[in-house]
Design goal:
With 481 residues, the protein is mainly alpha-helical. 78% of the residues lie in helices and 0% in strands. It is built from 18 helices and no strands. The protein has helices spanning 18-43, 49-56, 60-88, 90-109, 114-142, 149-177, 182-188, 190-204, 220-238, 250-268, 284-314, 319-325, 327-347, 349-371, 379-395, 398-406, 414-447, 450-480. Helix 3 runs antiparallel to helix 17 (414-447), helix 4 (90-109) runs antiparallel to helix 7 and helix 17 packs antiparallel against helix 18. The longest helix has 34 residues, at 414-447. Mean pLDDT is 83; it is low at 1-19 and 212-216.
C-alpha cells in the first residue's frame, strides 16, 4: 500500500468544505472493509487446504501456489497500481480492483481443477494489489497533517487483525458449508461483500485524481525483472516433484535477475521515476527495517499454515477446531498491536527486538508442548498459552517496525518507501510459505509422520524469526555506537 503526497496548490482538497468532512468517514470505512477482505484471503485459505486436497486432488506444489502465489502477485501489483490511481483517479482503480477481486473470488470458489484454482488465486492476488494502495492514497487525500494519525492507526490495526483472524473465520465457513464443499465458501463469501463494496466505493470515494496523468511512470521493465527474479527463486522450493539437482540452478538465476533489477532501477532513476527508489536503502534504519519486515512476514504468515495443516492432516481435527487453535494468537496480537503503536516512540527498536524474541521463544515452546501432549488430549488447549504470548510478541513487531522504518524517510519519498516496505512484506509471505511448505511436505513424505513434519516446519519458522531478531539487534547496537 503506497502512500502518496498531498495535492498540489491547484487542487482543492476534498475535505475543504463541510460536505467533504462528512463524506470522508464513510469513504474511509469502505476502504478499510476492502483492505480487511483482501488481506483476510492471505490466511483464511489455510484451514481450507485439506478440504481442497480431497475435493480437487491438489498436489503439495499446488497447495503452495494457492497460498504463496496470492501473496506474490499481491506484492508485485502494489506500486504500479498506486501510480495508476494517482494518474487516473483512485475511485476508478479501487472499483476496478474490487470488481476483479470479486470475479476471481467466484472463479476460485467454482474451480473444477487444481490448475484452475491456482490461476484464480494468482489473479485474485493481483486484484488485491490494485485495491490496497488506493486506500493509503485515499487517507493522504482526505486527511491533513496530524489528522492522518487516527486513520493510519485504523489501517494498521485492520492489516494486522485481518491476517491473524483468517484461520478462525475460514474454519467457521467450512463448518457451516460442510467438509466437502465448505472450502468453496471461503471464496464465495467475498462475492456479496465485494459487490456492496464496489457500489459504495463508486458512490463515496472522491471522483478526481489529484495528480496529472503521466503514462510514463509505470516502469514495466522493473516490474517484469522483479517478478521474474522472485518467481525463479520460489520455483525450486514449490515444485517438489521436479527431480534432480538442476532445478536448484534456478535459485542463482533468480538472484542474478534480482541483481539486474537493482541495476535497472538505478539506471532508470536517472531519467524517470523508478518502480522503487533504491536510494532509500542508503538510510540505515529503513534498510534494516525492510529486512526485518521481509523476514518476519516470512515466518509470521507460515505459522498459521503449519498449525492448521498439522491439526487437520496430522491429528484429524476439523477445520473449525484448527481455526479456533489460532484464536489465542489473534487475541494477543490485537492487544499488543494497540499497545505497540502507542509506545513505539518511547522505546524505539528495542521494542521490536523484545517482540521478536518473544515470538521465537513462544514458538519453540509450542514445539516442546506438542511433544508432551498426552494421548487423547486436545492439542489446542496445550498450545493456547504459548500462542497467546507469541501473538503478544507479534503485536510489538509489525506496526512499531513500520513506524520506525519510515521515520527517517524524507516526506517527498515517503510513498515509495511505504511501497517498497509493503512489497517486501508480501514477497516475504510468499517465500516463507513456499519454503516452510516445502519442508513440511518433504518431511511428511520421507517419514510418513506428520508430527515430525510439524516440528521441522515450526523450528524453521522460529529460525526465520530469529534471523529477523538478529537484524533488529544489529540495528540497536549500531545505533548505540
Amino acid at each position: 500500500m503506497v502512500e502518496r503526497p498531498a495535492p498540489g496548490p491547484g487542487t482543492a482538497p476534498l475535505d475543504a468544505d463541510r460536505g467533504g468532512q462528512q463524506r470522508r468517514g464513510p469513504a474511509l470505512g469502505i476502504g478499510l472493509v476492502a483492505v480487511f477482505m483482501t488481506l483476510l484471503d492471505v490466511s483464511i485459505v489455510n484451514v481450507a487446504i485439506p478440504s481442497m486436497e480431497r475435493a480437487l486432488d491438489v498436489a503439495p506444489s499446488d497447495v503452495q501456489w494457492v497460498l504463496s502465489g496470492y501473496a506474490l502477485t499481491f506484492g508485485l501489483m502494489l506500486v504500479p497500481a498506486g501510480r495508476f490511481g494517482d494518474g487516473h483517479g483512485r475511485r476508478t482503480a479501487f472499483v476496478v480492483g474490487i470488481v476483479l477481486f470479486t470475479i476471481t473470488s467466484a472463479g476460485a470458489g467454482l474451480a473444477p481443477t487444481a490448475t484452475w484454482l491456482v490461476a484464480a488465486r494468482l489473479l485474485q492476488g493481483a486484484a488485491a494489489g490494485i485495491v490496497n494502495p488506493q486506500v493509503t492514497g485515499l487517507i493522504q487525500e482526505l486527511y491533513r497533517g496530524p489528522e492522518r494519525a487516527r486513520p493510519f492507526g485504523l489501517l494498521g490495526a485492520t492489516v494486522a487483525i485481518s491476517t491473524a483472524v483468517g484461520p478462525l473465520l475460514g474454519g467457521l465457513l467450512i463448518h457451516i458449508g460442510g467438509e466437502e464443499h465448505g472450502w468453496r465458501w471461503v471464496f464465495f463469501v467475498n462475492v456479496p461483500i465485494g459487490v456492496l463494496t464496489a457500489v459504495l466505493g463508486w458512490r463515496l470515494l472522491p471522483r478526481r485524481a489529484h495528480r496529472a496523468r503521466d503514462r510514463h511512470q509505470f516502469d514495466p521493465v522493473g516490474v517484469l525483472l522483479l517478478g521474474a527474479g522472485v518467481l525463479l527463486v520460489l520455483l525450486p522450493l514449490v515444485q517438489q516433484h521436479w527431480q534432480g539437482p538442476t532445478k536448484w540452478l534456478l535459485l542463482p538465476a533468480g538472484l542474478l535477475t534480482l541483481a539486474g533489477f537493482a541495476g535497472w532501477e538505478r539506471w532508470y532513476a536517472r531519467r524517470r521515476e523508478p518502480l522503487f527508489d533504491l536510494r532509500l536503502l542508503g538510510i540505515r534504519s529503513y534498510r534494516l527495517g525492510v529486512v526485518v519486515a521481509l523476514l518476519y512476514f516470512g515466518g509470521f504468515t507460515a505459522i498459521f499454515f503449519v498449525l492448521t495443516v498439522y491439526l487437520q492432516n496430522g491429528l484429524g481435527h476439523s477445520a473449525l477446531a484448527a481455526g479456533l487453535a489460532s484464536t489465542p494468537f489473534t487475541v494477543g496480537f490485537a492487544i499488543a498491536s494497540v499497545v505497540g503503536g502507542r509506545v513505539v516512540n518511547r522505546f524505539g527498536r528495542p521494542l521490536v527486538a523484545v517482540g521478536l524474541a518473544t515470538v521465537v521463544v513462544s514458538l519453540v515452546v509450542v514445539v516442546l508442548v506438542v511433544n508432551r501432549v498426552p494421548t487423547g488430549a486436545t492439542v489446542s488447549w496445550w498450545t493456547a498459552t504459548p500462542l497467546f504470548v507469541a501473538g503478544l510478541g507479534s503485536g510489538l513487531v509489525i506496526t512499531p517496525n513500520q513506524a520506525l522504518t519510515l521515520a527517517q524517510v524524507p516526506v517527498p519519498r515517503a510513498g515509495g518507501g511505504a511501497g517498497l516496505l509493503q512489497t517486501g512484506q508480501r514477497i516475504g509471505s510468499a517465500a516463507g510459505i513456499a519454503t516452510v511448505g516445502s519442508v513440511i511436505f518433504s518431511a511428511q513424505g520421507a517419514t510418513g509422520d506428520w508430527s515430525v513434519a510439524f516440528h521441522h516446519a515450526m523450528l524453521l519458522t522460529s529460525g526465520v524469526v530469529a534471523i529477523a531478531l538478529c537484524v533488529a539487534l544489529a540495528d540497536i547496537l549500531i545505533d548505540r555506537r
